[in-house]
Amino acid sequence: METLQMLYDIVKFFFLGALQGFTEPIPISSSGHLVLAQHFLGIELPGLSFEVFVNFASLLAVLVIYRKDLVRITKNGLRYVWTKEPNTKEDFMFIVYLMIATIPAGVIGILLGDYIEDSGVSVVGITLMITGIALYLIRNLKGRKNDGDLTMKDALLVGFAQAVALIPGISRSGATIVAAMALGMKQETALRFSFLLYIPVSLGTTILSVPDMIGDSHLHVIWPLLSIAFIAAFIFSYYSLKWFMGIMERGNLKYFSYYCWIVGILVILFA
């Protein structure tokens, strides 16, 4: 019996880590899918430590994929601070806009986080439908804005879109990419801004959660299972983001709209 329970736990943690990892980068809401897995499959989420581990795994995957961009904007941003070289200003301002865009989600998360997390399954069905509609509306937009064409207004509006995505079922990547493309950003710029914006939010959430995670009395017991979830989340996040980048290049966002509508309707009907 103990062997069967251990096997079940391994499969459960791997599945949840893979589900979080695969759905985090693509615009179908990872938080919404975890809520659906809990409701329809009867899988109990393992708690705060699990969320911290898998979110950090997704963060590492984003860091690996965008490492060259991060090194470039960091070096040029620091160089601009010290030398004011004109050719480094674009990357410096890109960092500034990322910091500004982080503020709305941080403030709303602190003020309304507990209320938002209590959203039910039916809410996920509705918000998935909304995500699908938003993706469909911008599916053919091309945009003209590069990194150097961004403004304070762009940063704030994308930041508010990210704050809206705190609601389960509203995809974070979907909301920020929709907002960015609606503001006229090119697909490549919208994608880069969206995922570089994910870094400070995810890192901040991880750091703030560390004290609670340390106080988790079950952590020393389940850390091997958390390690399995972490590895699964990292691998699936990495390849899911790579896959999504290819889809963005081909302009196939409409297929995510269809998926969100189908799942949203099924959830509303059967929740």
- Overall mean pLDDT score? 90
Unreliable stretches: none
Query: What structural class should be given to the helix and strand makeup?
Result: mainly alpha
Separate helix tally: 11
| Rg result | 19 Å
Give the CA-based shape.
globular
Quote the beta fraction. under 5%
Overall number of structural domains: 1
Instruction: Summarize the amount of helix as a percent range.
Output: over 70%
Number of strands: 0
Give, in order, the helices and strands. HHHHHHHHHHH
Task: Kindly report how far apart the N and C termini lie.
Answer: 32 Å
In short:
By secondary structure, the protein is mainly α. The protein has 11 helices and no strands.
Structure description:
The chain has helices at 2-23, 30-40, 48-65, 67-83, 89-117, 121-137, 152-164, 172-182, 187-214, 219-250, 254-270. It has one domain (26-66, 104-270). The longest helix has 32 residues, at 219-250. With 271 residues, it is mainly α. It is globular. The mean pLDDT is 90.
